[in-house]
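Before relying on records like the one below, remember that each one covers exactly one chain. Contacts with other chains, cofactors or solvent are not represented anywhere in the record.
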Amino acid sequence: MNNKIFIIEDDANILYGLAAQLGAIGFQVETESGGEKTEEIIKKIKIFTPDFIILDLILPRLDGFSLLEAIKSDKEINTSVFIFTNLSDEDSRARGSRLGADYYFIKNDFSIIEFTEKIKNIIKNLAKKRK
């Protein structure tokens, strides 16, 4: 699978768990703990050029919704965004969708292994559709 994935998550256990799981199945992974400013994270995304981004919406120094909006409005970034968050209310889901999130997952609904499998299957299906 040689896709590149950029993970933005402040919980170290989830961040490194996802990075390890996705790396083990062949993804090239870059991580960010959400402690940087939006502009710095956008710069890192542009340098890494990921095929996919996993984004937590609750981050220590910035609002995940604002970061999502910045990612989706930047013409140089053309990538799918998977939201992986604890925000399960309908307003948050609707806002994420409105700002351009491609997928929205609630952390409590999945273990890291289950979430990794879900991502792998989505990406595999996307690749089939592109052929």
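Strands lie at 4-8, 28-32, 52-55, 80-85, 103-106.
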